[in-house]
Specification:
Blueprint: H1 3-7, H2 10-36, H3 42-66, H4 71-93, H5 96-129, H6 135-169, H7 176-199, H8 203-212, H9 215-230, H10 241-268, H11 274-278, H12 287-316
Length: about 325
């Protein structure tokens, strides 16, 4: 089960262990906070913390096991969100626990900055070697990896947004909480559809993926407008956590644009060899080249032998 851990480099092991320990520490602190804090917003921010910690650990695992240098950016964004949550919640609750969390997260962020730099140097060559030597294949492989990166970010931001909104806005007499819950399931299925369609270069389903991807941004923009209209009232939309939801909506829209962009770039290059390279049965075509080198070597030996024979004949004469 832990064979993969033994295969990791020293830097990879330190990075993964640090991310796991950091996550466990934050979860414990948040559990304590939920049981002791009297703020009405503790449950909302705790849900955001838990989800960001889980996704940060997931991104760290992908980085060290798949040696995906682009996922280093996703890991950094997840940790920046943790700092944002602690700062914003502290501004509205003035809980000293959050001040402590902010300092710890900042210290870990500086440490992660150094680790990310070291991992990038270690994984960079091996990461690009998987793409092959041609410029075309390297470009296609980059599009694929950036697509995966944005899929992970999209999943993180949208699930965090939907669950956060559900914990803050949920009312048994209001349909909105149920819509958010269904949205979590549909978002997960949508991301899986995009992964499958892109990897198998299925144009029809890739188009379906892109079209479905337009639905949530439309819904989010409508909700954002409604939030602004109802913010002056004394409804739930005027409470402080609504601004955090605004930030998450903006981030979700940016990530969705990035995901759609790299999906389109990949779609335009379907059929140029990426599907075969991503296949588990892919075998680099080195045999013909090796055979040519061997043949060239034999020809050179024969040429040398002929020259030696000619020289010997000249000496006899």
């Amino acid at each position: 089960m832990f064979d993969f851990f033994q295969k990791l480099s020293k830097i990879g092991k330190i990075f993964l262990i640090s991310a796991i320990c950091h996550g466990i520490f934050l979860i414990v602190i948040e559990i304590v906070g939920v049981s002791t804090d009297t703020s009405d917003y503790t449950g909302f921010y705790s849900a955001l913390f838990f989800l960001s910690v889980i996704f940060a650990a997931f991104f760290a695992f992908i980085v060290v096991t798949k040696k995906n240098i682009f996922q280093l950016g996703s890991f950094g964004i997840a940790n920046l969100l943790l700092i944002f949550y602690s700062v914003y919640e502290f501004a509205h609750t003035r809980n000293t626990r959050l001040y402590f969390l902010f300092i710890v997260n900042c210290l870990f962020l500086f440490f992660y900055g150094y680790m990310i730099y070291q991992l990038y140097k270690e994984f960079n060559w091996e990461f690009w070697s998987k793409a092959g030597t041609t410029e075309l294949m390297q470009r296609l492989y980059k599009f694929w990896q950036l697509f995966l990166n944005f899929v992970g970010l999209d999943l993180m931001v949208n699930i965090t947004l939907l669950i956060g909104a559900m914990t803050f806005l949920f009312d048994k007499d209001d349909y909105e909480g149920y819509v958010d819950l269904i949205g979590v399931i549909l978002t997960s299925l949508w991301c899986w559809l995009g992964y499958w369609a892109y990897k198998n270069e299925t144009k029809k389903w890739t188009i379906v993926f892109l079209l479905l991807g337009c639905l949530e941004p439309i819904y989010l923009i409508i909700k954002l407008i409604l939030f602004r209209v109802q913010r002056d009232t004394k409804s739930k939309y005027s409470k402080p956590p609504i601004y955090t939801i605004d930030v998450l909506i903006a981030l979700a829209l940016i990530v969705r644009i990035g995901l759609s962009t790299f999906t389109i770039l990949g779609y335009k290059n379907f059929g140029q060899g990426l599907k075969d390279r991503l296949s588990k049965n892919y075998v680099p075509q080195t045999a013909p080249q090796t055979q040519k080198l061997v043949q060239d070597g034999n020809d050179e030996d024969e040429k040398t032998t002929d020259e030696s024979t000619t020289d010997s004949s000249n000496q006899d004469v």
